[in-house]
Specification:
About 70% of the residues lie in helices and about 5% in strands. With about 400 residues, it is mostly helical. The termini are far apart. The relative contact order is 0.17.
Length: about 400
């Protein structure tokens, strides 16, 4: 069996060679990160590091040898849908009551910054005479959605009727910038608020039975073949039902153009909580998380290594302007909106740091931001309940609605 087919226009890699390349990108990223401390400090993902290096190598080959590589994309969508299914399967409604009123307030604040991010991005794009989709990708899609959501919507924008060929490259560039800036501004914002308002730091007394898993996992279960198959089955059901729903609703109502990952995510939420309510099956959160993170890593590896970097060169200045404006917006929003409406106390300062993390980057950045603050000043129990719920699950649902609404009013 041949691993590649050579033609005058370039080289096409088959499924197996593409899979090996995706794994190689992840291993390369890990190899580099383990040896470059700044990449560890900013929590830059392995597929981003390995993918950028691979994309640069491919760019050099393209420019010097006039060879263009084409990879098999059949794994791309299933991996992306598996990741969002894992998010849905991780959403436990029983945890909502622990967040109380503050959870609702924080959700409203999240929705507010999503709308503003799109207004800023699209507004600057129009002012600079650029495609408004550039502003959308530099808005809530990547700023609050991260690499996964960015790559997902980039696929939508590259297809009909949008035909924005540089979408994936723009999305990855914006998401990477946001990841770095989200990690840079979170801690300083919290420290500024704590000192500026002379906030009282709470004591460290906590009931260990009530500590959220993101702080200190209180119970571990070994992954076994049986449990792995059970978790894989749940994700497979989400993929099947999500795709069926997407195709059925698109046929019934062509105007409702939600991506498949939204339906997969919703299916995961309903499946997890129905099984739990009926006491049929308890979802193994750690295992679902592992499957989801592996799927995301492989999906991002593919998205990054297939970047057409040469398409980004003409968009450099507009992107810099948009991303600089988004950073300023997030800092001001966290200081004057998030902190104020979350109570103007220490917990609110930690929440502001977390909001900076996933408002510009991703959930891991938010958690690192908050852990950096709480390890220095003291614990914030409520922040480690609310931010994971909102940043790992609800933000994707709200963001999908905001993005779809924003696209519907763009001329």
């Amino acid at each position: 069996m041949h691993t590649q087919d050579v033609s005058l226009s370039g080289i096409s890699f088959n499924f197996y060679f593409t899979l090996v390349s995706m794994v190689a990108v992840l291993l390369l990223g890990r190899f580099i990160i383990e040896r470059v401390k700044i990449l560890q400090d900013y929590n830059i993902p392995e597929p981003v590091v390995g993918g950028i290096i691979s994309a640069v190598i491919i760019l050099v080959i393209y420019k010097t040898l006039q060879l263009e590589f084409t990879f098999d994309s059949s794994l791309s969508e299933p991996l992306m849908l598996a990741f969002f299914s894992s998010i849905g399967l991780s959403a436990d409604f029983s945890a909502l009551k622990k967040g109380g009123k503050m959870l609702g307030i924080f959700l409203v604040l999240i929705a507010g910054v999503l709308v503003l991010q799109n207004l800023v991005g699209v507004g600057i794009s129009y002012a600079m005479g650029e495609n408004p989709l550039l502003g959308m990708l530099g808005g809530s899609i990547t700023m609050s959605g991260g690499h996964g959501t960015g790559a997902t919507w980039a696929k939508v924008f590259e297809a009909q009727p949008y035909n924005f060929s540089a979408a994936t490259g723009v999305a990855m560039a914006c998401a990477t910038f946001g990841l770095v800036m989200g990690g840079l501004i979170g801690g300083p914002v919290a420290r500024f608020l704590i000192k500026r308002h002379n906030l009282k730091i709470p004591g460290a007394q906590h009931n260990n039975d009530d500590v959220h898993g993101f702080e200190t996992p209180m119970k571990e279960r070994l992954i076994t073949p049986i449990s792995f198959v059970e978790s894989l089955a749940l994700i497979a059901i989400c993929l099947l039902v999500g795709k069926v729903l997407e195709e059925s609703i698109r046929d019934i109502s062509p105007g409702l153009n939600l991506p498949a990952f939204v339906y997969c995510l919703f299916t995961g939420v309903i499946l997890r909580n129905t099984l739990q309510a009926l006491n049929i099956h308890q979802v193994f959160d750690r295992e679902v998380s592992v499957l989801g993170n592996v799927s995301l890593s492989l999906f991002l590896a593919f998205a990054m290594m297939t970047l057409n970097l040469w398409q980004l060169l003409s968009l450099a200045l507009p992107l810099v302007v948009i991303l600089t404006a988004q950073t300023i917006l997030m800092v001001l929003y966290a200081v004057f909106i998030t902190f104020r409406f979350c109570g103007k106390n220490y917990d609110a300062a930690v929440l502001a740091a977390g909001h900076c993390g996933f408002g510009l980057g991703a959930m891991p950045t938010a958690m690192v931001n908050m852990q950096a603050v709480t390890s220095h000043y003291g614990p914030s129990h409520i922040a480690f309940i609310i931010v994971p719920l909102c940043g790992a699950f609800f933000i994707d649902l709200v963001n999908a609605v905001v993005i779809t609404g924003s696209l519907s009013i763009i001329p």
